[in-house]
Structure formats: C-alpha cells, structure tokens
Amino acid sequence: MSHLLRILTLHSLKDLLKYKSFFLLILFLFFLDRMLHIDASISESFTSRYDLTTSATKLAAYVFTTFPKDLLTAVCQWQSIVVLAALFFFKQLISLWPSSDMRRMHRNERHRFGVLQALVSLRWHQIAWDALAVSMLCGTVGGWTLVWFFLLRTAWHREPSPVWLWVLGLAVFMATPVALAGFSYSSKLAILSRGGFMGKFKLFVKLFINRHVLFYSWVFYFVRQVVELIFVVLLPATILLTIPHPLLRIVLAGLLAAPVYSFIKMASFKFFLYVYQPYAEVRHEYADYYQGLDDADSR
C-alpha cells in the first residue's frame, strides 16, 4: 500500500513539475468549461419547475411516477442527440487528449510541443473505440440503475415512503465510482497501441469481472470523487458565486481547480498503470516505466 501511495503522490507531483505544459492544458480545459457552461436561465427554469425544497415524499412521488415519462420525452427529442454528441466531444477533450499526453510522458516520447503532439497523434479508431466503450459503460450502469429503480418503484407503489428514494440514491451512489473509473479507463485503453479492438474490450471488462480491479478502482475513484467535489467543484463554485468581477473570479477559480485537477489526472493515470500492470498489453506498452519502478524499488 505504501508503494502505491508513493506512486500516486510523489511520482505524480514529480511528473507535474517536469511536464509543466500539462498543467497549462488542464488550465485551458477548465477555462473552456467555464465558457461553455450551461446558461443560468436554464438552471433557473429547472428549479422553478421542480422546486428543490419540495418534501421528500413529493420528490419520491415525482421520481417514481412522473420522472420516467419526462425522461422518455427528453430522450426522444433530437436535441438530446446533439447534447450527447457534445458531451462525448467534451469527454474527448478532457480525457482522451490528456491521456494521450500522459501516454507519451510515460513512454519517454514527450518532447517540445508535447501537448499539441498528443492531440495530433490521436486517431479516429481510438475515438471510435472510446465511443463504444462509453456506450457499454452507460448500458451497464444504466442497467444497474434500472433494476434498482423498478424494484424500488414496485415497493413504493405498495407502501409509498421516501425511504425508497434514499435506497435508490444509495444504489446510484455505489455505482458512481465504477462509472468514473470506466470513463477514465476507456480513454487510457483507447490510446494503447497493442491489444486490438477486442483485446482492449477484454481489458475494459476487467473493471466489472475482476475483483482486484473492481475493488481498488472503487476505492480510488471514491476518494477522487470526494477530492474533486471539494477542490474542483465546491470551492471554485464559491469563488464564482461570491466574487463580483467576472475575469478575476474565473482566474482565481481556475488557479485553484487546475493544479488539483492536474494532480488528479496524473495520479489517475498512474493508478491505471498500477491496477492493470498484470496484463501484457499494458505492461509491454509501458515497459520502460515499469522497469524504472523496479529499479527504484531495488535500490
């Protein structure tokens, strides 16, 4: 465990200091996210339609009766396809692009203009594989959620109680770290030069069927979720909501969130290399990196 903590902390910080332009990439993506954020009027209209202060009983009634119809109506609209396509494109920016950059770092292939080289080195087949992996992940997590939803919906019809909504929330919460791990691993497996299309899927499925990968991933991404919530969401949001000057609040929020998020991204990549080390495709792809770890441990 101490070996893993050293990799996730000291090694991650060392690489962030070595590859400073990676921090600039994350900072750029943060500012891009701020510029593309959903307009406040949309969130205001949502909260005006569904009062967030509604009692738990009324909220449970809405979730188990009206919400499925509203969700189905929204999914059937063409705007939903546009939104999903935009979200996937954004996922490529914040996940596949940095993963490509970190791949070059850990293969000692990153030189000048490393950030741009990481972008131009991406191939369409990698993006296509990532799209299929994300679809599979959404189907798996969605299936888990649907099973719990219908079970608890049946229980709610027999005895209406907000406790069923809390159980549903707990079930979704339990799946969230796995979903985050899947979104992260899909990008890291997509950029592998080994394994082929099906070989990468076999590695991706390890997240769901291998107890070692599943357990360690759940713990790591649970901790990551808490850290992100505090330092990347809540504190920057407080700055954005309390400082009146637009440019100053965006800069301050970015300078707070970007270093933390950069560290999280680097630590996540190293965690991926740790948990997938037993598999030949990953071990051969990053042979020099693993050899460096072995040499450092033998000293």
How would you concisely characterize the structure shown here?
The chain has 299 residues and is an all-alpha fold. It is built from 13 helices and no strands. The chain is globular, with a radius of gyration of 21 Å.
Describe this structure in words.
The chain is mostly helical. The protein contains 13 helices and no strands. The protein has helices at residues 2-18, 20-35, 40-49, 56-75, 78-106, 114-120, 124-158, 163-190, 196-209, 211-242, 246-275, 280-285, 287-298. Helix 1 (2-18) packs across helix 11, helix 2 crosses helix 11 and helix 5 (78-106) packs across helix 8. It is globular and about 65 Å long.
Question: Which properties best describe this structure?
Answer:
single chain, mainly alpha, 13 helices, 299 residues
How many individual β-strands?
0
- Structural class from helices and strands? mainly alpha
| Radius of gyration based on Cα positions | 21 Å
Sketch the topology as an H/E string, one letter per element. HHHHHHHHHHHHH
Topology summary:
Blueprint lengths: L1 H17 L1 H16 L4 H10 L6 H20 L2 H29 L7 H7 L3 H35 L4 H28 L5 H14 L1 H32 L3 H30 L4 H6 L1 H12 L1
